[in-house]
Structure formats: structure tokens, C-alpha cells
Amino acid sequence: MIAAGVTMAAGVAPFVVALAILEFWTSPPPHAIALLTVGTFVAAGLAPWYTHGSLALLGNYALRQRVGGLARADIEAPVEDIGAVFVGFSPGEELRIWDGETDRDVGFLSILADTLTYAGDEFKWALPRAQIDHVALGVPVAGVRRIIVRWHIPRGGPKAFSIVCREANTLQSLSVVNARLYRALRDWLWRDRPPAGGTPLKWGYPPTDISDGWALDRPISGGCVSVMAIALIVVLTIWRVSAALLAVGDYYSAVLWAGLIAVVGAVFTGYLLNYLHYWEARSHNR
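Now predict its structure.
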């Protein structure tokens, strides 16, 4: 909620500042007003992107420390000593929302000689390399592509799960470490297989239950009506506010007010859809 609030403020602040400058700046040169207007729209586009990228993983380090304390007992060694990587885990190949998050669980992934192991907050599993069929990158979401691992159970059919490396504190750096983990998994999967009789499995297979997750691209009840209603309110508000300013020849203020109203409407629409998605999933799983 802190990250969402700051991100919204970052998108609104440039317009508020620009309108305040126009209110108190007497007789500004026309070219200065034009530059101010253009700069406001550029800042309003870049500021939320940068803010969201910087705050989206707020608290990730503290979460890593807490889960690391739990994982040490399961792994029976410090996670740093075995090169374990902090990741987010979700069963299934399709991107889903789990109580507002794209990660079903968080924990530490270890790439051993012939086994992939995971010790997390809720799940623990081990997967032999011989049962992993393919490793691929999913479609990008907010600049991050989750790693999809397809595997199988003997005489049990194909399975899949996705992970994303969380060894970062910003979305920009997360995409870098995630790509590094993908290359490590890909190279590990296709190098020469070790002889039989490797590391014994301490835990079961990765969980495959996706019933609590809500597909990200699944239609939301009332979502279309809500978006259309907000869009209508935004258009009518822009028309009422900007028309009055255009009537007196204050063209730049009209443009800035239109941008401010549009940004507020877009941000509110995003939050509303997020909450509708969350409550739809909760209702579906009751």
C-alpha cells in the first residue's frame, strides 16, 4: 500500500506542481509555458515507472532474512553455504494471482548435482534433474519474465511451475538476476548427466494444486462495466474543466488539467481492477 500510494503521488505531482506554477507565475513567456507543459507530461510518465520499480519489492530483504531462518533448519546448513537463491514460487505454468501476489510462496532454490531443491515458507520439495523436461522464460509482466519449469512424474503426465529470482530490491535489478538464474538452470539441465545414485530426495515433488490461484487474464465480473463507467466520468470531468479554461483562452492549463484528471482516472482504474480481481478470487475459492 505504501508503494502504491507513492507511485500514484509520483504520477500526480508533476501536474500539481505545473498548475501551481502557472497560477502564481505572472506573464510567463509562451515558449516557457510550452516547455513546462511538455516537461510535465514527460515527468508524469517517468516518475511512476521509476517509483514503482524502486518500491515494488519494498520489504523483500526483510522477507528474505525471515524465510532464510526457517530454511536453514530444513536444509541443515546456512543457505549461503550451498549457493541457495531466494525465489518466488508458483505451481502451474499460467500466471496467477495468489491473494494479490504473483508468488504462491517464497523460499530458497538450490541447484545440486542431480536435483533441484526448494525450501520455502510453506512448501519444501525436491525434483530430480532426470524428470525436468524444459526450462523457458514466460511472457514479460511489468518488465519481468518468470522462469517456467516443465517436468513430469513417471507414468503421471506433464507438470509445470514457475519461479522468479527475488535476489534484488528493485524491478530493474530483478530482471537482471532473474535472467542470470534462467541461464544457470538452462546450463545445468543440459550438461552431462551425473551417474545414478546421486543426492537422495528428502522431500516430495513440487505442489501442483492451483485451485487457490486466479488466472491473471481471466475476465473479472463487473470489470468491463467498471472501466467504462470510470472512463465516462473521466471524459465528462475533462470536458467540464477544460472547456471552461479553453473558453477564456487558457490552453496550457486546460491541457494540464486534462492530463491530471486522466492520470487520476487511470490509477484509480488500475487499483479498482486489482481489488475486483482479488475479491473475485476469494469468492471463487470459498
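Residues 2-55+219-284 form one domain.
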